[in-house]
User: What shape does this take?
Amino acid sequence: MFLGIDLGTSAIKAVLIDAAGKVRATASHALSLSNPQPRWSEQDPHEWWQAAQSAIEQLLAEAGREGIAPRQIAGIGLSGQMHGATVLDKADRVLRPAILWNDGRCDAQCVDMESWPGFREITGNLAMPGFTAPKLLWLREHEPQVFERIAKVLLPKDYLRLCLTGEYATDVSDAAGTLWLNVAERRWSQRMLELTGLPQDAMPSLHEGNAVTGYLNPALAERWGMQRVPVAAGGGDNAAGAVGVGIVRHKQAMLSLGTSGVYFAVSDGYLARPEQAVHSFCHALPGTWHLMSVMLSAASCVDFTANLTGYADVPALLADAERTVARSNAPFFLPYLSGERTPHNDVHAAGAFTGLRTDTVRADLANATLEGVGLGLLDGIEAVDAAGLQANDITVIGGGSRSAYWTQMLADIIGRPLTLRAGGEVGAALGAARLAYLAAEPGAALEDVCEMPEITAVREPDAARHAYYREQRQPKFRALYRQLAGVYRVRGTT
Assistant: This one.
């Protein structure tokens, strides 16, 4: 048996799989979030550890009811929310609440980082407030008494590793999101650390995701009735999620339709396109990288329109949209409710309905929303294509993948087949468990451990619909963003 633990923003999740890859038990524990000031987002690392212990103990209890003993567990893997800054002193005391990936306080520090010589060439990415390094620059400027006491900086999942094993370690997929990693060479960049004001020994040791980073400490092993099993390096949440759904080989890709929208494509070599806000990261497996486009509001836009227009729920919106014939003069929707990352990197971008007429009905707004999210995702996919990585095998996951109508629309917009698989909402905890399997059993075949789930449907694009979206809707969609961008940017800075 192999245990995967995923430290999310809203909950800790744990999953237990057997050697055949079957999920045998699951558990979770909710987490709280603190927003002490506008644009601030923080969590207490001590709460992470308390929640992790609760989730593990729940999972062991569930497994016990199925006749599975804790001593059957052969390895543990970790996954977690990326970019969070967890700062410790020399005694491993937490110096302040962790600053999370969705914290926006350090935009000024990002501007400074972009002026550093060789910054984009080394990191492969834009400096964005979500990343870790600008958070440390903010601490150096605004909380110098904290900064001066920092002995170690850990990413969220790696604080759990410290609690489990006593080791300071991370994996290259998570480290790539710090802006301290030379992503092409998969090593810490001395230059980026020096410019931040940190020594290299403030960083955890670096490992591939399927490497052993330590062993469960004796006290915990005794308490849980487990052996001192190896703990794998694991991966950042997106990389671990990809491992969980079998997206591990060159030109494989997944499109995640969650609250945000993520297009994740695997490469067997380093590629980057920071000028279009494409994320260039290491994958959680040796010799692989990935490019990622991130859309901040995807399925959340559908929730927004359902609430705005009085639908009972999202399924009612989808059903009404499907019953309505799309019109050539249909409204447009810009899906930038929370700003946007790829390809615009525009914190001031805003959502909008345009082209409303006297005969516009709410089903038109529903279809405009579904289409607008699709056109936004297409912008991100084309930015990844422009970096030199065009994937033709795209698996759709996330809550939005349950809609046959929307996934067909997306296939028509993108112009490529979209594959749906069993368990398409698999979380990163499964990927963490698979990485634990690979760490504990080095001889295990990647294709066996990271098998892709069974195909349940394939949405083939309709050539006529694709031509319509490409020739008529996409150019107008992009023009609307350009026309409105200045309006919202001025409003956002006054």
User: Anything to note?
Assistant: The radius of gyration is 22 Å. The first strand starts at residue 2 and ends at 7. The chain has 17 helices and 24 strands. Residues 246-425+462-494 form a domain with the Nucleotidyltransferase; domain 5 fold (CATH 3.30.420.40).
